[in-house]
Design a protein that fits this description.
Blueprint (H helix, E strand, L loop, with lengths): L2 H4 L20 H12 L5 E2 L6 E7 L7 E7 L5 E7 L8 E4 L1 H9 L21
Helix pairs in contact: 2-3
Amino acid sequence: MNTSLAHAPEPIPGAAETAIDLTGVTAYTVGIIRLAEAKGLRPTWGQPRGNTRRIILNAVGPHGAFGSITVGRTSGKVLRAEVVHSNDARGACRAQGTNAVRVLLNGVSRSTCQPGCTAPSSAACRP
């Protein structure tokens, strides 16, 4: 029996299906990352800060939603998130904890804005 395989970490389900490295995050965090991808928020890792890591969210085009998800550096758990629904939105929506972050992301509409859009506002933006 090959014992080197017995101690290999178990892969995160669906890890190959996503563009962001899922090493060291919980299954709940994976679900939230996939939700962000489904909403067109193109999650990518930002620079670590203290005991946390940030996932940067940025939809396509100037009128798409953007923000970040903060993940515990050692726990891999989602701690909080902040999302601005577009460049002309008033203020950011914030959430604390995994369930609240999931609810926040569920409320984000997939952007129809395209790169190079010159519309004066998200309301005037047309695909």
